[in-house]
Amino acid sequence: MTGWVARPGRWVVWAVVVFFFVNLAGVVLSVVVDSFGTQWFGTWLPDGFTTHWYADAWREFGLSDVLLTTAIVALVVIAVSVAVGVPAAYALARRSFPGKRLVMLLFVLPILIPPITYGIPLATVLYKFHLAGTITGVILANLVPSVPFVVLTMTPFIEQIDPKIEAAARMSGARTVSVFTRILGPLLLPGILAASILVLVRTVGMFELTFLTAGPDSTTLVVALYNSVFAAGIRANQSVDAMATIYTASMLVLLLVALRFVNPTQLVTRIREET
Amino acid sequence: MTAVATARPALRHRLAERGIDRTLLLLVPGLLVVACLFLYPFLYGLQLSFAPRKGGVFANYARFFGDPYLRNTIWTTLGIALPATFVNVLASIPIAYVMRGRVRGKRLLTTILVVPITLGTVLTAQGLIMYGGPAGWLNKVLTVLGVTDQPLPLIHNYTGVLLSLVITGFPFSFLLTLSYLSGIDPSLEKAAATLGANGVQRFRRITLPLLAPGLAITFCLSFVMAFSVFPSAQLVGDPANETRVISIAAYHAAFEEYDYSMGSAVAMLMAVVMLIVIGLVMAWRGTLYRGATGGKG
Fold it and tell me: What GO terms in the biological process aspect are recorded for it (chain A) (predicted)?
């Protein structure tokens, strides 16, 4: 904190940060302001303000169905990836075995490779099995990054739980099932909660995989938004922006909830737990 | 796994000694998901790319490299992804360097930075169309300030895609860089300061060499994100010409021409180009890391 005046570098850095935020705010606010405007052409602000675009957007884009689909997809993806990912994370945290590095690599790859690359072959396979275009297909596609994500967030979390606790429970006669439900379950709950919220944010925001596999009845909010932006001109730009604002608002709510449980950096990548 | 269950106790014990026991069965569902939904489609796509609609085994690849409209998508994509990645990573270093210690408002800052990542490219694209458009606020401010007479063409072209990649990509590489920087022991820098190194020397001789391996990873992850740009290239770019990136070509082949074989071939090429760039960066990282630890001790 010493010598602010003597360090012009700091000022430049802060100026860049502020510039970035001002533009970011501009990008987000343009959409929000337009969604409430009656008519906006060439002036600083719209001529008047109204909320009727929201009703339009809700009707035109069938948002109640879209939101329902989004919720179902997200919840099923969370449930399945926790149910599948946590046991796998447990095995990886507690055992070292030949080929463990290979297994880890297999779990890292779907996170490292961008969705659009494996999404195209995946969608092709789903079309082959007549699953693409259905909500099942969308869920299956979204499991690909989510299961490894849960595995990779939970493994370090389980590693820090002392194995002696489990050993003690076993010594006292607990069976495997009760070790899991009575000992590990409660200890794992914070980690599972954090992982679920991260999966939720990522699934709701996941564009590519859902876009490639969704049909007319199985689009999630972000894909509906893309479709409406892409087909702009057919519909009033304001109702597209109204949908964008609904999307932004729901993402921000999820984000606020998520940040109560996890560190901001964890939303981006897997970093060592600081709990 | 069946071998473990049916084998003699002696074998079972020997396996258990090497860490193979029934706990590993817990891995099976997870591995099944990855195998069925990731590995199998990938291999299926690879095989499909060698089974074109017409022509020989390599007909898809021959068509890709023979048709300049398809071939050039590689250069278009690199031409967008590499500058965007460099901007994001290079801008992250000084900012993360200033923020690495205890800075007031750091938590708030990182929180705000997560916003563009969670909002994603689709919303960023729509926002940019409004904000950077001819009648948008950005052009208005620039006109009022006298920077320009007429609105700058910022959207539906190369600039638009680059801007959208910076908006979503910069926070990502910043947060990564920050976490790598926070992992460097501050006492090393203090030791250098005690020995008389000034700020620039400390950064160049101590922090940067220690940070470089992390930067290589940051570069790779940011590059992969930028390389797979799809929604913003479609929405805020010029998807027919200037920003016809390779992912658009793959999507076009697979879902507009319904030539899944060609689409898979382009997707495979996308993965190959990405792997080449990552391989080069990681090779550079290897040389660099050895030099930093072996050289000065």
Answer: transmembrane transport
Is the pLDDT confidence value at A214 over 60?
Answer: yes
Q: Are residues A19 and A89 in the same domain?
A: no
DSSP string, A236-267: -HHHHHHHHHHHHHHHHHHHHHHHHHS-HHHH
Domain containing residue A18: 1-50
**What pTM, to 2 d.p., does this model score?**
0.85
Q: Are B218 and B92 in contact (CB under 8 A)?
A: yes
- Chain B interface test: which of A243, A268, A272 (most B C-beta within 10 Å): A268
Interface ipTM above 0.95: no
Verify whether the Cβ–Cβ distance B20 to A225 is below 8 Å: no
> Which residue ranges in chain B fall short of pLDDT 50?
1, 290-297
For A140, the closest chain B residue by CA position comes to B37
Encoded tokens for B24: 């590993």
**Residue B99: burial class (beta carbons within 10 Å; 0-12, 13-18, 19+):** buried
Tokens of B95: 């900012």
Identify the structural domains of chain B with CATH numbers, from first to last.
67-296 (1.10.3720.10)
A87 and B27: CB-CB below 8 Å? yes
User: Is the same domain home to A155 and A24?
Assistant: no
Whether A198 is covered by a domain: the verdict is: yes
